[in-house]
Amino acid sequence: MNTTALATLSICTYLASALLIARHAYQNSTQRTPIYLAWIAVWAHILYTVIAFQQNNGFNFSFISTASLISLIVALLLLIATLNKPVEKLGVVIFPVAATMLGLELNLPEKQHLLHTHNWEMNTHILTSIIAFSLLNIAALQAILLAIQDQQLKSHPPKRFIQSLPSLQTMESLLFQMLGTGLFFLTISLISGFIFIDDLFAQHLVHKTVLSIVAWIIFSCLLIGRIRYGWRGQTAIRWTLTGFILLLLAYFGSKLVLEIILHRQ
Question: Rounded to whole angstroms, how far apart are CA atoms 194 and 196?
Fold first, then answer.
């Protein structure tokens, strides 16, 4: 199967879906067509990734390929969430990012960075890490949208896109649901790392470990604060974004410096 054709189909349908979501939000209408297009995009992206995996005899964990995989999982998790939650508006940001990452992976081939350790322990750690990052990525975008909604509702009248969103209470509830699920997978990721990785504090892993632990503490404190003290609004937004930025640095900081800036593995 032609990987270029699959990638092109995925990119086009990602962008078409995002445009339709934005258009429907502006018109304050609800249709399923953008979701159907997004599912086509995700399945084409999955097929592209599977074929690339088979051709390389493993997954290429280079910077752009990893970013493309994570953007795929973020898009997939968002679509699953839309089955019972009103979060499709996040596709305005998530789908173009997924299209961009896939386009970069297709047109900017990198030196392969394959994982040579294939066992269930390492696969558990990697999979839970990626799912945790993807869920908390969606939570961070939800927090940004919540901040914009809160600011816009104070103006008169708010923009149509903001008017099309669920209520602030619903948006906050969705944010904490995503945070709770993301924290669950982040906890499994950290525990599996401590158990299965021989030297988690080795020189090339120490910053990832420390930043991930600090992010875990921040998200845990936020959820405890929500339960015990009713934290919400700007407090929830600031803590969510702070935790996600730390996690972003943990996952991509060294890869960006070594592979893109210094051109080293």
Answer: 6
What distances in angstroms separate CA 181 from CA 23, 81, 146, one per listed residue? 30, 12, 18
CA distance 94 to 79: 11
How far is CA 252 from its chain centroid?
A: 13
Crossing angle for the helix pair 120-153 and 91-107, to the nearest 10 degrees: 130
User: Residues 56, 25: contact at Cβ < 8 Å?
Assistant: no
* R_g over Cα of the chain: 19
Using the structure block, give the residue that is written with the tokens 């896109």: 161
Measured in whole angstroms, the distance separating CA 29 from the mean position of its chain's CA atoms is 26
Calpha distance 134→130 (Å, rounded): 6
9-55 confidence digits (pLDDT tens): 999 999 999 999 988 877 777 788 999 999 999 999 999 999 988 88
Both tokens assigned to 178: 């995503």
Digit-coded pLDDT (tens) for 125-169: 888 888 999 999 999 999 998 888 888 877 666 677 777 777 788
The model carries a pTM of 0.84
Q: What is the C-alpha separation between 78 and 164, in angstroms, rounded?
A: 18
Rounded to whole angstroms, the Cα distance separating 69 from 176 reads: 25
* 166 and 182 Cβ atoms separated by less than 8 Å: no
